[in-house]
Amino acid sequence: MDKKPITKAGLVSDLRNLGVRQGDILNVKCSMRSLGKVEGGAAALIEALLEAVGAEGTIVTDSFIKVYKPYVAKKMPLADDNSFSYCGVLANEMLKHPKVERSRHPVQKFAAIGKYAKEFCENHTDESYAYDILRIMALKGGKNLKIGSDEQIPGVGTTHVAIGMLKLRNSRPYLGVYYMKNGRKTFFRRDWAGICAASFNKFLPYYEKNGDIIARGKVGNADSMLTSMRGTLKTEYDILKKDPSFLDCGDPFCVDCRLNWEFSRGTKPGFILKSLLHGKLMKAVFVARMFYKKYVTLPDKDSKLPPDDFAE
Questions:
Q1: How confident is residue 291, by pLDDT bands cut at 50, 70 and 90?
Q2: What is the rounded CA–CA span in Å between residue 108 and residue 67?
Q3: Which residues, 6 or more positions from 45, have their beta carbon under 8 angstroms from its beta carbon?
Q4: Which stretches within the chain are classed as H helix?
Q5: Strands 176-181 and 184-189, how do they pair?
Q6: Four-point Cα dihedral 162, 168, 171, 174, nearest 10
Q7: Which of the residues 14, 49, 94, 189 has the least number of beta carbons within 10 Å of its own beta carbon?
Q8: What pLDDT, on the 0 to 100 scale, is given for residue 217?
Q9: What is the pairing mode between strands 222-228 and 143-147?
Q10: What is the pLDDT at residue 1?
Q11: Is residue 119 helix, strand or coil?
C-alpha cells in the first residue's frame, strides 16, 4: 500500500478519470479504509466530490439510523436530523457539513449536498418509501459511485428500489424508532422489505452485460466503479420481475433467503432439523426463537411503495 497521503486534488483527478462530470447527481458509497491515508480525511473527500460535480451537481449518501424493539426504542433518544448514523465515516462527516440536507424519513435518512439536496430531502418523509430518493435520482440521470471493492461494498443501492416497485415482501422483526410527529412522540415501525447482503453482487455480471457500468478504476487506493442508476435499476427490475427468487443468495442455511421471502420454500421446523443435522446449533436456536418473537410481513401496505416507473 502506498503510504504517501492522498490529496484532495488527487481525489478530484481520480474522480474525473473515472467519469464523474460537472452537474452529476451521485449516489455515493465509500469505504474510507480502502481509500488509503487521505490528507484531511472524509472532509477532504466530500470537498473533492463537490468540486468534481460542481455547483450544478449533487452528492447523496446513506445516513440511516438503527431500529429497535418498541420497549428498547422508548429508552433511546428520539430520532431526528441529528441522530448518529451507523453508515460510517463518510455519512457522519457529511452530517457536519454546513450545506448538508438530511431527509425527513425517521429511519432511512439520506444526507445530500448540492443543487437538488433540499428538493430530495424535504420530500422524503415518514409517508415515503424508504429508498424513494434513489428512484428519483435514477430518473434524473444519477450515477452510482462506489469507492471500494465489491466485497467491501456489496451492491449499488438501486436494488432496494426495484424490490419496492415490484411489491416484493418478506418477514422482518417488529422494529422501529420513536420520533416527533405533529408535536407527539410517535413510534415509526420499519415498513419496507430487506435483502440478504450476499445477494447484491449476483447482479454484477448483468450490469456488465447491459452496459450499466460506466467505468471501473481507482479513487485513491480503492477499487471503484461508476454506474448508471437508471441502468442498474432497470436491470434489477427486469430480472426480479421475471424471477423474484433471484434474490436467494444460494446459502442453504441463510435464514433470510430460505424462510423470510414470500417466494421462500423452506419451513421453520424443516430448517431447524436441517441445521441440527449439520451441527449448526446457533442457526437452529435463532430460527426456533422466531416462533416466539413478533415478526411482520413487509411492506404491509402498498400506499408507501414507489410507483412502477417501468410498468408496460
A1: confident
A2: 10
A3: 8, 11, 30, 32, 35, 38, 90, 93
A4: 8-18, 32-35, 41-53, 70-73, 89-94, 117-122, 132-139, 159-165, 204-209, 229-242, 255, 268-277, 281-290
A5: antiparallel
A6: 60
A7: 189
A8: 97
A9: antiparallel
A10: 46
A11: helix
CA distance 99 to 113: 6
Under DSSP, is residue 225 helix (H, G, I), strand (E, B) or coil?
Answer: strand
Q: Tell me: pLDDT of 277 over 50.
A: yes
pLDDT digits (tens, 9 = 90+) for 30-70: 999 999 999 999 999 999 999 999 999 999 999 999 999 99
Distance between CA atoms of residues 8 and 12, nearest Å: 6
Select from 309, 168, 312 the least CA-distant residue to 245: 168
Answer for the pair 87, 63: CB distance below 8 angstroms, yes or no.
yes
Measured torsion, CA atoms of residues 117, 120, 126, 131, in degrees rounded to the nearest 10: -110
- pTM recorded for the entire structure: 0.94
**H or E element at residue 125:** none
Least confident of 67-71, 164-168, 281-285: 281-285
